[in-house]
Amino acid sequence: MSAYMVAVCEITNPGPGLKEYSEKSARLSANYGGKYLVRSPNGDVKEGEQLSGKVTIISQFPSMEKLQEFYNDPEYQEVKKLREGTGNYEIAFYEGL
Q: Per-residue pLDDT tens for 24-40?
């Protein structure tokens, strides 16, 4: 069963580390079968204000196990440091239907 990672990101201090993080994390997630379904700062928010001005990312993985393996990969944990100080990140994992 597919699993999904949803990230809502408020970028407050973009810089070269964030670009490097994006490139490296995309390559690493692909190693676990991950692919982006949504990666956009331009969502059409219909209700509420919490998503306005934020980047939303939705990634699909073949299973929750693969998603957890990606997130816990020591290499990803190192890459994740590249985005420190660039904004506020809310990340959640969901099982597909």
A: 999 999 999 999 999 98
